[in-house]
Write a structure and sequence with these properties.
The protein is about 30% helix and about 40% strand. With about 130 residues, it is of the alpha+beta class.
């Protein structure tokens, strides 16, 4: 049985800022605090969180959506990659960022939902609020 979830957070920066940062190795490393290596184009492979996460970018809608195949080192060996959609919606004060995560191995969805909040949304809020003050 596949597992999925959707979570969102608001950021006080424009969608294009978040979109470009997500696909940039240096910015992604800076906003998560852990090494990211990203080939930013469609078909580009990536690793984040010091190779804990790996995958490939399978779809791009500039400044609006990134679709990636995605897995961690905790996925069972024979488990297929999951799919992540990162959606950037312009709001009056910045961006509503939504993560739609599909096809997660059984029993792991809650762990990844918590991980997106703790290891992405929280450090991103801190990073971009400091960056915008400069």
């Amino acid at each position: 049985m596949a597992n999925s979830f959707t979570i969102s957070e608001k950021f006080n920066v424009q969608p294009e800022v978040l979109y470009k940062a997500w696909l940039n190795s240096k910015e992604h490393t800076n906003f998560t605090g852990s090494t990211a290596k990203i080939n930013p184009g469609k078909g580009g492979k990536f690793t984040t969180w010091d190779d804990y996460i790996s995958g490939e970018t399978i779809g791009l809608d500039v400044n609006k959506k990134i679709v990636q195949s995605w897995r961690t080192t905790e996925f069972p060996t024979k488990s297929p990659n999951s799919r992540v959609e990162i959606v950037f919606e312009k709001t009056a004060n910045g961006t509503k960022l939504t993560i739609k995560h599909y096809d997660i191995p059984d029993g792991q969805a809650e762990e990844y939902k918590k991980g997106w909040k703790e290891y992405y949304f929280e450090p991103m809020k801190e990073y971009f609020s400091k960056k915008m003050k400069k």
